[in-house]
Amino acid sequence: MAASPDLIEREAALQGLGVSRLRKEDARFIRGQGTYIDDIKLPGMLFGAMVRSPYAHARIKSINKEKALAMPGVTAVLTADDLRPLGLHWMPTIGGDTQAVLADEKVCFQMQEVAMVVASDRYTAADAVDMVEVDYEELPVIVDPHKAMDADAPIIREDIADKDEVSHGKRTHPNHIFTWEAGDKDATDAVFANAAVTVKEEILNPRVHPCPIETCGCVASFDKVTGQLTVNVTSQVPHLFRTVVAMLSGIPESKIRIVSGDIGGGFGNKVPIYPGYVISIVASIVTGVPIKWIESRIENISTTGFARDYHGIGELAADKDGRIKALRFFALADHGAFNSHVSATKLPAGLFSICTGSYDIPVAYCRVDAVYTNKAPGGVAYRCSLRVTEAVYLIERMIDILAQKLGIDKAEIRRRNFIKEDMFPYNTSLGWTVDSGNYHAALDKVLQAVDYEGLLKEQAEKRAKGELMGIGISTFTEIVGAGPTKMCDILGIGLFDSCEIRVNPTGSAIARFGTMSQGQGHATTYAQIIATELGLPSDEIQIEEGDTDKAPYGAGTWGSRSTPVGGAAAALAARKIRAKAQKIAAHLLEVGEADLEWEIDRFKVKGNPTQTRTMKEIALVAHTGDLPEGMQQGLDASEYYDPPNMTFPFGAYVCVVDIDRFTGETQVRRFYALDDCGTRINPMIIEGQIHGGLTEAFAVAFGQAIPFDENGNHLGNSLMDYYLPTSFETPHWETDETVTPSPHHPIGAKGVAESPHVGGIPCFSNAVVDAFAHLGVTHMDMPHTSFRVWQQCKALGIEKRADA
Q1: How far is CA 510 from CA 400, 513, 523, in A?
Q2: Would you name the residues annotated as active-site residues?
Q3: How much is the average pLDDT of 478-496?
């Protein structure tokens, strides 16, 4: 039965779930009315600037502050010796390690923090940095993780050299951090020993950097009278930040206020607690005035959380028809000088064990060894959940390699190995339970949309003429929504999340969350969830995040966890309010609760639709007095949501590239992306997230890498060298969707922001390699710059023109 005009009008007024409404927060941003860290100005505020090491590994013989302290406007120069009496010269990392706040007797990576100058303005502080004299004794350097555990390798972390265990099991070398395994090694080895077909390939995920438009920074302000510490900071995890500061400083957590205001992008880079934050807090405690520290772009790329640097070996065992019988993956993870890798305590290698992907693989085994090197620490989840990009890249590259060896079409081999629709929920051979999926339908829809058969025909014709055309496919499953406390915690704190909702007497509402937006549109999407659950217009629902004095405790926003965890908390908190409202409505209408049914924005009596009470009417009554006996006034609720499982968004992508064999230039002719994120809250915001994720995937696949020379010198720490694509280079994106709700999520949503990054990278790479597949090429490491692609052409002897 078609909905009546009245129902349609009332539904439209809510602008709730499924509506492509404009983002509520954008009005102030496009007017320049956002408030970022560098916009904050406090009375008496001083400025901090870092003295950084020019060497990747060196002993500090002496630090002379005299010339800097003699400069007008310089208040202090702080070193590790100043922090040591306070016990603040080292800090815990969220990877379970410890890290020097300021270099303690030696530096372990280039541009490590050695001292902080505090001055009256930013320019004076920067000038004073150059006046601090540090005498270094250079030490041997390790930049190649494959050499980190050699018998003669220099010891990077002398502070823990004699420890057999740091935080994640036994170590076998002073530069060894952990070994992590998943799956059944013996059973996997047995399958490989008897397999009809095996393939093996070394696959690198190079070190890259999220490079958000706003660098990291903070304003720390300690009140010596009250003992109250307030830190305005660029943090994706304000509550976890507060807990770490309390652990480190000894200040009661109740006297620490962390405020994350508007943040100019995060992408995982603003999850860790960096030394600059800690030393700014210490400087404020010491001086008694606010301290502002804002890093430069070069500092951001050089020292804050990098991503990837995974050196993998992938193996698949299959029968002659291409059905995978076993998977065996190994990875060597370069964590830099300190293990500040963002990971759950029980999952030191993150969620790498999702590497079975979208495929029904009976047995599998994977192992990750992490090591220290003389590079900046990190290992953040750059627009992905923890190590999921590395895992998906491995399986999607390896299945192409298997198809190539067997001469099977790359779409067909995926079909043969997909988890079937009737197998969900599906338990993988590495221990995950994939909630829902329909992979065959997604792939078939994409192949039809791009005329896959026509593309194959065109490719054959171009190859006959000596032209290079590649068709890349990626059919990926991501794992997001960290996460269930039974498997995910950081520093012992479960990764639940929270929502508190207060409905005002006039029917507007305010909702506060433990998550933290950095551009995802939370103020809009959370309001849409609550609007549909409570029947209140989303325009009248205010969303607040990021202030630990106001928001309930939560684990922040990273790993696409906002919708799977924060969104679920919103829905369940709203349902508690609606349940109370139903009791009030029943009391007002003098019927039983069971006699009422919910309709968009009101309760009505079954069989007598003229008897109703709207949610706004109920809100007013809830704050007056005509309530059921024993019921308290108010219409408020809170929810701390600990999900029963992760969520598993998936997608099917196709990329078509044309390569100029004389120059190596690669043109992305077409990119078609189908994403299934479960229930779609705001299709317009989803579209924007997909465009952003694909653009970052394009950047990684075609240009991003952080190289080092043999002395540990950073060779790509400015935007002159590090690739960020503009609208000129970025391809046109075509998007599509299927909808397969998550069965355990309150509204069936799965999360989407990271999927295009995770699935896009292997799709681009598969397309580039496919352009050379008929010439015997099975793999090419990223980034696929014109020069590197031209080098492949040269190796094949196809780079010269006929008349050259």
Answers
A1: 50, 10, 11
A2: 236, 383-384, 754
A3: 89
